[in-house]
Fold these 2 entries.
Entry 1:
Amino acid sequence: MTDQNLGTPVTLPTRRDPACPFDPPEELTRLRDSQPLTRLAFPDGHVGWLVTGYDAARRVLADPRFSVRMDLKHSPLPRRNVLAGSGDKPAPGMFVVMDDPDHRRFRRLLTGQFTVQRMRRLEPRIVQITADHLDAMAKAGPPVDLVQAFALPIPSLVICELLGVPYEDHAFFQEQTAVAVDLEASVEQATVAAGRLTDYFADLVRHKRSSPTDDLLGGLITDSDLTDEELTTIGLALLIAGHETTANMLALGVFALLRHPGQLDAYRADTSLTDSAVEELLRYLTIIHRGSPSRAALADVELDGQLIRAGETVIIGLPAVNRDPARFADPDVLRLGREGARHHLAFGHGVHQCLGQQLARIEMRIGYRMLFERFPALRLAVPAAEISMREASLAYGVRRLPVTWEQA
Amino acid sequence: MRVITDQDRCVAAGQCVLSAPDVFDQREQDGVVMLRDPTPHPDLHDAVRDAVALCPAAAIRAQEGR
């Protein structure tokens, strides 16, 4: 046990260099290279830990002595995540902030719906939805905002169909979700948005309870003993997780490819890069970027020669973790086809690892491939420096991505 | 190599099926790991080692040299 690194606690680095929108905050990278496990000061006065090294991050996330419970964790964010519940209490059924065995009971009701095989059966439908949106883009003509024309509506429509949420309500839930996850919105604004989403979903669940439907929510209503409150929370969590994340990866991934023309040429020329490109973009871009994932120590745990005491909160600095040179050679280089890219922690690690990761992979695989096949000369319609980034959002990405192409 | 899986620990992330689909499958109802081949051909050993490393729940072991 050593106290050599226990200097003044740092605050969570969040400022990125505007000239390098794909790179983690420079200070986060510096910390990883000098003190991959360091004391972190939280806005509420708590002093916990920041992990920026790959091995330590994996160990924390896999260790049941570290809890995900909100009532035990301190938040490094300017405001709490209102979607997880109010105050210290998780919303009923909000299994992402429960430890096992509670977490496991809920997760096991859902895992059968997100298997590799089950997601592959959705492929033809995802191809169709993607083709429809590319047709609409071509018809509208350049320039278009790729977020609104492609990146947001495709995963939104896919998760709506999977869950059984009427897509015609998408403007409502996309808008409310955007407020609920915006860290610059006040806690009041975010709470109102989360409340509207919850009311909407509660109505939907009641409706499906009286007239059952053949979709994921309908199946849960028929086959599980979940309460309406639990179904509401779980349905809403899946809807938000299902479109916010993939939408940001799609648009940010396209931006990154357009800014790495050599890699994009290689991708276009070689269809064997289709799968590995997705993994490398997940690693390189790591959109879960601000104060998440996090855990609270349930016991004293020794980690890399430091003692993490029971009750202390540990934040994983994921963007720096996925660029750890001890795990990935030349980590700051985007290299599609990189061997071992799949070992990134972009989907997390441990029992909470992303439930929808196989769906996300398929949507990105189809999305990037079909977009660049249909629009081989796609390019930014504005200088790259003018692309506004979602720095203050739970998931990183671009606000808009104006693109253009030569019409045939 | 002998592959051992722990269905109680499994969280059904599907990482093993992506790594080595000839060795691992997922149960239809809950996605829990099913072993298709407990003694895979040596050509598949690297893929199995990848699955062991990638499993988020440490639910797979590979005993080497069997």
Entry 2:
Amino acid sequence: MLDVSLTRSLPGFDLNVVFTAPPGITALFGRSGAGKTTVIDMIAGLARPDAGRVSLNGDVLYGDGVDLPPERRGLGYVFQEDRLFPHMSVAGNLRYGMKRGASGVGFDDVVQLLDIGALLDRRPHRLSGGEKQRVAIGRALLASPKLILMDEPLANLDAARKAEILPFIERLRDELGLSVVYVSHAMEEIVRLADSVVLMEAGQSVAHGAVEDVMSRLDLRPLTGRAEAGSVLPATVAGHDDTYRLTRLTVPGGDLTVAQLDLAAGAELRVRVRARDVSISLSEPTDISVLNRYRGTVREIASDGGPQADILLDIGCPLWARVTRRSVDELGLAPGMQVFALVKAVAIDRHSVGERGRLPRNP
Amino acid sequence: MSIGLSPLELEALGLSLKVSFWAVLVSLPFGIAVAWLLARRDFPGKLLLDGLVHLPLVVPPVVVGYLLLVTLGRRGPVGAWLHDSFDITLIFTWRGAAVAAAVMAFPLMVRAIRLGIEAVDRRLETAARTLGAGRSRVFVTVTLPLALPGILSGIVLAFARCLGEFGATITFVSNIPGETRTLPVAIYSVLQAPGGEAAAARLTVISVVLALVALAVSELLSRRVRRRLGA
């Protein structure tokens, strides 16, 4: 459990963040320039706050007259760039932070976990971007940190490399029980990885809590991103349909059928449904290809006068739909109306789905 | 002109190598320390230190020799102390020649090493700190090895400058055969005597060959280092 409360004056704005990172993966989410990197630099001891307190599992790292240097904070740091030492082999890099006689994870375990056994004798300049970042994660792990900070570790990688790294970050949590504070401005990474999220705007932490809750809040919608608007639903894998290669999920509003996922029945998930993939009908539609239909109530209609309107539906849990303003008028949509929400199964794929941590989570 | 070197030439060559070797070896730790301070630290008096280090580059070598004479001579404050406490005499000895060479070469050494240290990505040093390494371990395991190209070129530049040192040397430790008569001083000496041109030419060739060998060695070394750093 990481408790953070920090302030610092920066050119242009004041930084002021207060949050608690429960066990699991906590995302620090916000636009570029919101101060996310400065926050984790201050947690790591690489940047100096004006005032505040940082404590990890009750041990004070900063504040109350304490200011531990970075090497004594026991935190791992995976940077946006790999920052591997160019004059050492991969094995040399991995061993750099290992302490003699330390318990923690072993060298061979980490090599196997990150699948970097074939790279050990190579120099960093002969690795691909994804390999470098895996070695950087391994190097941080082998220093036996109590928590790992990650500053957009996937930002410099293409989509294929990102998909290559994501499972390894999940393994840190699921197989090693490590907590991670993960800086990102990419919604899909957060849905995939994070258990809780801290939302930052212009240096302030404006909200924090479970991903599903924060991402569904109406008042935070300007910050959680208009272009990426959508809802995050908690889901459980109910079963697979091998004939049509579909997976049936249970969500609070009923069943959600999606393209087949390689996940076992019972797995706890987060599913992101983009608002533009949700349609609205006044009567229960028949003769239609859309597999997922939910009965719900219109809660709010938000529009800025542009061509589209965002509609918050209650289908047992909050669900956003984005339709044209013309459709709103033609259907006469208004808060309180009973409608049917339609979600195409093919709109949801592996990138929209994240496994929820198996660690105990704070309410 | 025979190929073999005369005893006097061998003596001057050997002395030059000895003086330069010790001058570089002893000043190198100071050179690295000062270069690191100038490259990585901010402190009051930094400009003054920078100026002091560069002084030998801009004042006449004779002035440096004179200042060494005043401070390190038998009756100078430091010289008297060295003599009384450690029985070390610098004036009129090859050790004094090494001190003069080291002082004159120091700015070049510091400049090259400073560039080498400044070229080290500080983000790598930061990363090492987050892996549990304290400042001194970071310096030894990250900064120094990555600054090696700069350190090597500092060594070579300083060595070459030491080989060529004349003004401060002759002012401070005079021109004593077998003790302080290095190659440049020897060239000056033979030119003072009538008919010394041939001897001067031979000594000049020796100097040039020595300089070329030093350059070749440094080039080979820096190539190996660059390969190791994966550039």
